[in-house]
User: Which sequence fits this backbone?
């Protein structure tokens, strides 16, 4: 009976040590940050919508934006003004 | 072209038959330049055509005033990453590019708004869907 009680106390002590090791102090030198905390980039919090058509888009080597498949047989060019 | 182009895109681009390319025209000075740059800046986030559609859909309200803040608001509405978009627009990093595209189409004699080119066949003005469809179908048979 005595042995069982000592074993239980030993287990409690080990658990306490482990818990203490895992808990970070909230103040004092050990808790001080080693570098400045930077906020997450905006891109991480804003969703980028898919293209409105659901079709992929890419840029040609000469800088024109294209919607559709690179290997599509016909090139349809639209030249227009937003103004 | 808000009426005919979506149908061209549905019928031919989404089915993989054609690829749809856009080239800038700058007919209204700063207003056109600003809007074209907005499309290019959205392109940095792979949303050129999303912005293009939104610009055409909001011409009177957002484009015509020639106010960069309205374009930034549109980018926000489209859920683009607003900080790099605003930085891009303010820097005018695409101004030379859109001007070069405009100059190229002028030199090619593309004076009408809009002008289409379907594998070398030019179609000018706001034409009916059937006219564009006919040109595309003929190009597909060649």
Assistant:
């Amino acid at each position: 009976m005595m042995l069982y009680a000592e074993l239980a106390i030993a287990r409690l002590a080990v658990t306490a040590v482990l818990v203490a090791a895992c808990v970070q102090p909230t103040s004092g030198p050990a808790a001080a940050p080693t570098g400045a905390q930077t906020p997450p980039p905006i891109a991480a919090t804003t969703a980028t919508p898919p293209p409105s058509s659901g079709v992929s888009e890419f840029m040609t080597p000469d800088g024109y934006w294209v919607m559709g498949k690179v290997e599509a047989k016909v090139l349809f060019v639209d030249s227009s003004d937003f103004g | 072209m808000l009426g005919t182009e979506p149908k061209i895109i549905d019928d031919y681009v989404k089915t993989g038959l054609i690829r749809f390319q856009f080239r800038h025209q700058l007919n209204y000075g700063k207003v056109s330049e600003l809007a074209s740059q907005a499309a290019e800046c959205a392109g940095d986030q792979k949303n050129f055509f999303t912005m293009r559609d939104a610009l055409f859909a909001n011409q009177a309200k957002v484009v015509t005033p020639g106010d960069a803040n309205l374009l930034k608001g549109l980018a926000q509405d489209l859920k683009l990453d607003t900080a790099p978009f605003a930085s891009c627009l303010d820097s005018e990093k695409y101004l030379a590019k859109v001007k070069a595209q405009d100059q190229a189409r002028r030199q090619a004699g593309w004076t009408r708004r809009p002008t289409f080119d379907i594998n070398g066949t030019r179609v000018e003005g706001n034409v009916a869907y059937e006219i564009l469809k006919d040109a595309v179908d003929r190009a597909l048979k060649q």
Observations:
- The beta strands of chain B are 18-24, 115-118, 121-124.
- Chain B has a mean pLDDT of 95.
